[in-house]
Amino acid sequence: MQRVLFITSTRIGDAIINSGVLDHLVRTCPQARFTIACGPLAASLFTETPRLDRIIVMRKKKAGLHWWDLWCRTVGTKWDLVVDLRSSVTGCFLRAGQRRILKKSKTPIPKVAEAASVLALDPPPDPRLYLSEAVRAQAADRLPGEGPYLAICPSASWIFKVWPAESFAAFIRRFTAPGGVMPGASVVMLGGPGDAVYAQPVFDALPQTRFIDLVGLGLPETAACLQRCRLYVGNDSGLMHMAAAVGTPTLGLFGPSDDRCYAPWGGHTDAVRGPASFAEIDGAHDDRRQHPESLLADLTVDTVYDAAKALFERTA
């Protein structure tokens, strides 16, 4: 039996990006048992990992003391392999047969490819989420039949990454109209706890649209519902990467984040931005986190509609 310690991200999107490396190890090391260290937001994504021994939840502490806690909880085990996608030094001070610590790329490359470089994997393995049959059955109850379902996530981790609510509403109205690409489709509204503030203006603007409100649903449950959707359109966020990982055609909306690194991964995905490049937006805003409003205002409804239509048709 091999013992593998897999150290992955705190953030949901980054943890999903890294999941292809974990899946590669699951598939290629059939004798391995896994301990996964991650942040509390991402922990539920890994509960169905095959041959899982435990999940160590790393809660951030001042002065990096969460790394000390991780070392204390893992130093007593002789690991056959430590894979550290957080680029920390913790793995250097554990007993391990092999250590693979990520060296971050100095040039913009897809984060999936960067994660794969920790094991020198080329081509990079696709991200993958393991879902239980119970969660899949719940999704079938929430989204019965064939739909079609259009999945929308109008939120993101920062307001500056959010496409305006009125733009989402205009896109949905046009895309699901009788002459649109998905006429009469039900719209699955997604988001994390507290994201109703982003969804409500869209609901208010479209009182006649058939919405299924799943904002605040757990991550595995959301992933299973996404798998039943025909198309996902949303901001650069963890749920965008989740949609791509479960195989749903996924269109990511970009502006103040770098689509060269963070575009959804796979042949069933695409990314779109307005006329301003990431470099132009980044150069104009020294600290985007202090920006109080969207930086995607230049991304038009026509641009998103055309990109979503092309992706829909390409993945038919």
Automatic annotation (TrEMBL):
Keywords: Glycosyltransferase, Transferase. Pfam families: Glyco_transf_9. GO terms for cellular component: cytosol. It comes from the Bacteria. GO terms for biological process: lipopolysaccharide core region biosynthetic process. Transmembrane segments: none annotated. The keyword Cell membrane does not apply. GO terms for molecular function: ADP-heptose-lipopolysaccharide heptosyltransferase activity. This is ADP-heptose:LPS heptosyltransferase. It comes from Maricaulis salignorans. The lineage of its organism: Bacteria, Pseudomonadati, Pseudomonadota, Alphaproteobacteria, Maricaulales.
